[in-house]
Amino acid sequence: MREENPVRAGAAWVVKQSRLVRLNREGLARLGEKLLSLPDPQWIDRYHFRGEEEITLRYLLVLDALNFCFWPPTGFPEETGEMGTKWSVTGPEGEKLTGYYALSFSLRRVAQDFPEFFSPAHLAALTPRELRDLLGDIPLLSWRVAAAREVGILLHCFRSAKAFFAESKNSARRLVDLLTAHLPMFRDAALYGGHWIPFGKRAQILVADLWGMFGGKGPGAVHDLPWLTAFADYKLPQILWSYGALEFHPSLAEKIEAGKLIPRGSSAEVEIRAAVIWAVEELVEMLREKGRESLTFQGDWLLWQLAQAPLPRPHHRTLTWAY
Question: Does pLDDT of 57 surpass 60?
Answer without folding.
Answer: yes
